[in-house]
Amino acid sequence: MIDIRKATTKDLHLLASLSTESFIPAHGHSAPKGDISSYIEANFSIENFKKEIINPNFEYYLIFHKSKVAGYSKIIFNYPTNHISDLQVTKMERLYLLKEFYGLEIGLKLMKFNTELAKKKKQSGIWLEVWIKNFRAIKFYKKVGFEIVGEANFTVSKTHSNPNYIMYLEF
Predict the structure, then answer these.
(1) With bands split at pLDDT 50, 70 and 90, how would you rate the model's confidence at 140?
(2) Do 118 and 75 contact (CB within 8 A), yes or no?
(3) What is the pLDDT of residues 34-60, one digit of tens each?
(4) Domain that holds residue 99
C-alpha cells in the first residue's frame, strides 16, 4: 500500500535522515568525500529544512510503502528557468527514494502525484536538474516523458560542481 502526505515541521528529522540516506548512494561518488559532506551539512540540516518547510513556495511530500517511509519530493510552483519559455512551470528540486525501495514503482507514483499537483496549479510542465552521470534517474525521467532541454552546473561545494542536465516534462 502506498500513501503520500505533505510533510510538516514535525517531519524535519525524518527529511534530514532521508536526504542523507538517499543522496549518498546516488551522488556520494560524484565529488570528493569532503565536498559531499559539506553539501549534506549545508542542505540537509534540520535548520535548513525548517526554513524551507515554512516557506509557502516549497512543498515537500513524503511517500510511504506499507507504512514505512520510502522517500520524498520537493517541488516549487511557478519557478521558471531560462531553458523553458513558459513561466508557469514547476521545478521538482528533489525526488529522493531510499535504495531499498528501488524497482517497486514508488518513484513513479510520487512522480505522478507531483504531476497531478502541478496540473491542478495550472502549470505547463515540470522541470528538474539531474547529474549527467546519474544514469538510473535519467532513464527513469525519460521513461515518464522528460526530455533534455539544457545543461547547468550543480554546486556541490565552493571547490566542486557537477554537470547536470535540465530535463522538462511538458503537459
Answers:
(1) very high
(2) yes
(3) 999 999 999 999 999 999 999 999 999
(4) 2-170
Per-residue pLDDT, averaged over 59-80, amounts to 97
Mean pLDDT, residues 137-158: 96
* Dist. CA 161–CA 39, nearest whole Å: 11
pLDDT the model gives residue 55 = 95
Residues 6+ apart with CB under 8 A from 65: 1, 2, 101, 104, 106
Q: How far apart are CA 154 and CA 129, in angstroms?
A: 8
Residues 72 and 62: their CA atoms lie apart, in Å, by 4
Other CB atoms within 10 A of residue 4 CB: 18
CATH of the domain at 127: 3.40.630.30
**pLDDT score, position 36:** 95
Least Cα distance to 126 among 70, 86, 71, 155 occurs for 86
How many independent structural domains does the chain possess?
1
